[in-house]
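seq:
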Amino acid sequence: MKHITLTLLATLSLTFAAEHPDTTGWKDLFATDLSNTVAPGGWAFTEGVLVAKDHDTLWTKDSYGDFILDLEFKVIAESNSGVFLRSGDIKNVLSALEIQVHDSADGSKYGMVAAIYDAMPPSKGAARPVGEWNRFTITCKGPQVTVVFNGETVIDANLDNWPEVKKNPDGTPNKFPVALKDFARKGPIGLQGLHGKAQAPVWYRNVKIKVL
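struct:
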């Protein structure tokens, strides 16, 4: 019985384990001079690390549909940022999915790090301690969105399962005035600037993308 239990536990752990890709040859999402972004005044590269100076979101000029986005981020206590995907309108953050970047949680499981903000919590906690680098691999392909977080698949979502306005599949409410199934399937990618009451900093590096 003990052997069977250990085997089952190992199988379950492998179900959630995932490898991050080798990004050799992938495109840098942001040019080092940020010339391929919209209004980059509040952001800058410092020794290869991208940092925000204010609350403005850094948006790509290009739009992306199906892609794999790989990046590393680092936070301190009360850091609050996010990765916006396929924005329908860069002037309206609620037109884009946001993968939450946070030190831990943001008032609820729908705001914790690696959640699809206000829509789906990660299946498990995989964050490293504050001050250490974390890694996301985010894949968008049609309605399917997956997030590998520090070697664990924590989000595997089909946006078609969100057919109602301001409502999640589990019955909980969300803020979105458009059903997630009707969100744009192609749009700019953004990094949220200093956010929340603390305005605590966040750092990004090795932000790479592969178009599918």
